Amino acid sequence: MNKEMALQELVGELRDGMTIGIGGWGPRRKPMALIREILKSDLKDLTIVAYGGADVGMLCAAGKVKKVVFAFVSLDFIPLEPYFRKARQNGEIEVMEIDEGMLLLGLRAAAWGCPYIPTRLGLGTDVVNLNPDIKLVDSPYDEKEWLAMPALKLDAALLHVDRADRRGVCQIKGPDVYMDEWMARAADKTFVSCEELVDTEYFAQGDEARYVFWERTMTSAVIPVAGGAHPTSCTPEYGFDVPHFQEYNASAKEGGFEAYFDKYIKGRSEAEYQQAVGGIDAIRQLPLPVY
Amino acid sequence: MTTPATEYSLAELMICANASAYDNDGEVLVTGIGVLPRIAASLAMLSSNTDIMMTDSEAWLLSEPNPVGKRDADFQPKAETWMGFTRIFDNVWSGRRHLTGGPTQIDRFAQANISALGGDHSKPKVQMLGVRGFPGNSICHANSYLVPMHSKRVFVEGECDVVCTIGYNPDRLPKGYSFDEIDVRQVYTNLGVFDFRGPNRQMQIVSLHPGVTVEEVQENTGFPVHVPESIPTTQAPTEEQLDIIRRIDPHNLRAKQLKDNPPGVRG
């Protein structure tokens, strides 16, 4: 089976109103090339499930989002995501605001075919009051009440990885998989962009297969885009682009998202985007973050 | 073998107070969010509780804390265990963790807020981080808080605008649970050290920093603070502690955390 897909084909696989999970964490290993394709499209009314960063901020700013399921939206070194903040403060989006661990449990429930997973997380807080859809249940085994974290079924997951073959074997060499594995398992279809397309034989070398975290049956399509996580990081290939994020953040105060979008994304192919931000070689040189 | 320091900054005093939070924790994951709590956790791991586990804030447990800020190109972190985010959650849910965070609001019920301020939840006046892991942390393990500027903006009169953590509000106690299961440990501010072990879990003074008065605390807190009969002065850092702090924070980032970097003993 050959799952290789061109970047321009992605949007044709998505529909208005879909629930879409986005991999990565804050400014780390986000499938930004895939996000840019959505930004350039007519797609709308999306429900986004993410450990959010600029992916969520940009989609909100571009009017693509109906609802965000989130625990945080942050660029880490810039703690508050400027466009998510604007969208929230203008009351433009619906939200399901939940604990970071609850989000993981929701993905696992979807992956495992459970309607919910019982947990203590969120009890006694506004997570319960602000989310009337989240129910509390009694346990058949004790006298306590439990929060029933509902399955977060995804119509599609968008992920970025280091390497993949055409059959959908995906490799992540960075130190953390984040929740990408659970996004892939919770989704009907998983679209994966990769730094490098490799032959299947690649995974037979040394311990390369140990960096593969879900079976290829969970991968629907593989889209080769070297540098596709920019401006987020893809450790160990490259770090996040601090000056670019600073410019993006500043644009929220002056110029607005339109100015940023016009300068880098509108009417541009991914190759043209990369040229506008300094080229693939410059992306590859971005220093890894120090925590 | 300890020598009390005569000169130290307020930030260093707060670091040492925060470090003492972990003295009797045993072998737990300690997480200090922000510069001062991170230095405090590292200090504890290098002195008073060497059993502590700590991450590199990315994906590994370290057998020795990393210094904060820029490091030499040849620096080799002492990783001992893979600790990606899913495993962090496994650890959180086990209860074997103690976190010190820096919330924007804390109320009289020991509830904390990092999510949003004002307005209503569909349109907050100020969107902040979101609840992050605070709800789960608060019901699973010990939590302490560090507040750089003790004021009524932080210690609010009513409930927090968004209650991100379970505290000691009887109206919010889930069925079948006891507040004995909720472990809000201590709060470290620029004025003193506090806990929620006063009458009816009221916030009380544990110690005050040199020169700080009870009146100053009460004036800057939006709810009544319990005043015990005797109030000690917060223990001064030792020279040994300051030496370790200088090693953990070679670029003196701690000097930039409090406005004007005031001395520990008021002039």
Helix content of chain A: 25-40%
Mean pLDDT of chain A, nearest integer? 98
Helix/strand/pairing class of chain B, anyone? Answer: alpha/beta
pLDDT under 50 segments of chain A (min length 5)?
A: none
Spatial gap, N to C terminus of chain B: 28 Å
What would your notes on this structure say?
The complex is a heterodimer of chains A (291) and B (267). Chain A is 27% helix and 21% strand. Chain A has ten helices and eleven strands. Chain A has helices spanning 32-39, 54-61, 82-89, 100-112, 126-129, 180-186, 242-251, 256-264, 270-276, 280-285; strands at residues 19-22, 46-50, 65-70, 94-97, 116-119, 135-138, 145-150, 154-164, 170-171, 187-197, 221-224. In chain A, the strands form two sheets. In chain A, strands 1, 2, 3, 4, 8, 9, 10 and 11 form an eight-stranded mixed β-sheet that branches. In chain A, strands 5-7-6 form a three-stranded antiparallel β-sheet. The longest helix of chain A has 13 residues, at 100-112. Chain B is α/β, with parallel strands linked by helices and 267 residues long. In chain B, 21% of the residues lie in helices and 18% in strands. In chain B, a hairpin with an 8-residue loop joins strand 12 (192-195) and strand 13 (204-208). At the A-B interface, helix 3, strand 4, helix 4 and helix 5 of A face helix 3, strand 9 and helix 4 of B.
Key attributes of the depicted protein:
heterodimer, A: 291 residues, alpha/beta, Glutaconate Coenzyme A-transferase, 2 domains, 8-stranded mixed beta sheet, 10 helices, 11 strands, 27% helix, B: 267 residues, 6-stranded mixed beta sheet, 3-stranded antiparallel beta sheet, 21% helix, globular
Gist of the model:
Chain A is an alpha/beta fold. Chain A has ten helices and eleven strands. In chain A, α2 packs across α3 and α4 crosses α6 (180-186).
